[in-house]
Write a structure and sequence with these properties.
Elements: H1 5-16, H2 40-43, H3 53-69, H4 76-86, H5 89-98, H6 111-124, H7 131-135, H8 137-150, H9 166-179, H10 183-197, H11 216-227, H12 230-240, H13 264-287, H14 291-308, H15 316-319, H16 322-330
Length: about 325
């Protein structure tokens, strides 16, 4: 199963349908007083759609990624027009200024932070949207500075399979740090990986929980695959999941059952199925050729995709974000 032009076109149309849809919206706004009740577009003039800030950010990432990978998209002009209209210096300054208020400095930490940094890295590589990487610079540099301040204080990782997962955000953040040569941020991310995860052994993979869209086990392994050299990662992985060649823990090979897609939390499980595929494939790429393991994992990936890929647009609770995770599964980050 690959990301082909038809699928890319469908995903791009889905994203264009929600990145500017202001309602319903789930704000993460910290009210400072009784008058402090702005509409989302007042404080987030770029990322006010897609139900919440972080989903809107990675909706823009999705569009930039598809635009770069498939330059002949029928909606290519619509994507360019979207960036031209919304990603302006004035709007970026309003978005950046939101993080200046002390009680809002942790807004969207760490998930939204990782996605915003990843968005700018994607735009930097884009043949005709790269100007927006420069325009986004004040916002991304603000978030990078907040991350540089935060990581030395983060004694413990957060391992849950939701937005607070430490490994997921830092996996995206490393791409930004490497593209923009932010050595301090990159070194901090790698130091945290070693401090938090290097000594992990015999992961039990007690998952999924009822609202997870990330595998805490596989996300950690995919992050370590990004951090460690191939030989070191092989040794680490053999300790972390010592029985994976035997298909254990079984939970990592069995797709999650999604009982309803109208419940936003339960719909997260479609994201779990898709993000596991992305993680498994990153892990395989880092491990190198191993035919028996590759066959077992690829069979699990096919099963996970079959469970959730047909349901990207079943309900707005999934529609506003799942296409991004489908692209991660089919293409990679």
């Amino acid at each position: 199963m690959k990301l082909d032009p038809t699928t890319a076109e469908n995903f791009a149309r889905i994203a264009l349908g929600h990145v500017c849809r202001p309602f319903p919206y789930f704000p993460g706004h910290c009210l400072l007083n009784e008058e402090d009740r702005p509409l989302p577009q007042d404080v987030h003039p770029i990322f006010y759609g897609s139900f919440d800030w972080h989903s809107c950010v990675h909706g823009y990432w999705l569009l930039a990624t598809l635009s770069r990978s498939f330059p002949d998209l029928e909606v290519q002009s619509d994507i360019i027009a979207l960036f031209r209209k919304h990603v302006t210096p004035e709007n970026v300054e309003i978005e950046r200024n939101y993080f200046e208020t002390p009680l809002r400095r942790s807004f969207e930490r760490p998930y939204g932070w990782g996605w915003l940094l990843k968005l700018r890295a994607e735009l930097h590589e884009h043949p005709y949207l790269s100007e927006y990487a420069d325009i986004l610079a004040p916002l991304s540099e603000k978030i990078a500075s907040l991350y540089r301040d935060f990581l030395p204080l983060a004694v413990y990782p957060i391992r849950v399979g939701t937005h607070f997962n430490s490994a997921f955000s830092l996996r995206l953040t490393l791409d930004y740090a490497d593209v923009f040569h932010d050595e301090e941020l990159g070194n901090l991310a790698r130091d945290r990986a070693h401090d938090w995860f290097l000594n992990d052994r015999a992961c039990q993979a007690w998952e999924p929980c009822g609202d997870e869209f990330l595998s805490s086990a596989l996300m950690e392994a995919a992050f370590m695959a990004r951090v460690l050299e191939r030989g070191a990662f092989r040794v680490w992985f053999d300790h972390f999941l010592p029985h994976v060649a035997e298909g254990k823990p079984e939970t990592l090979f069995i797709p999650a059952t999604v009982s309803t897609r109208a419940d936003g939390k339960i719909a997260h499980l479609d994201g779990l199925n898709l993000s596991r595929v992305w993680c498994w494939r990153e892990i395989l790429a880092a491990l190198g050729p191993e035919e028996a393991l590759e066959k077992r994992i690829e069979a699990a990936c096919v099963a996970h995709l079959a469970e959730s890929l047909p349901h990207i647009k079943d309900d707005y609770m999934g529609e506003h974000w799942l296409a991004t995770f489908a692209v991660l599964a089919l293409r990679g980050a």
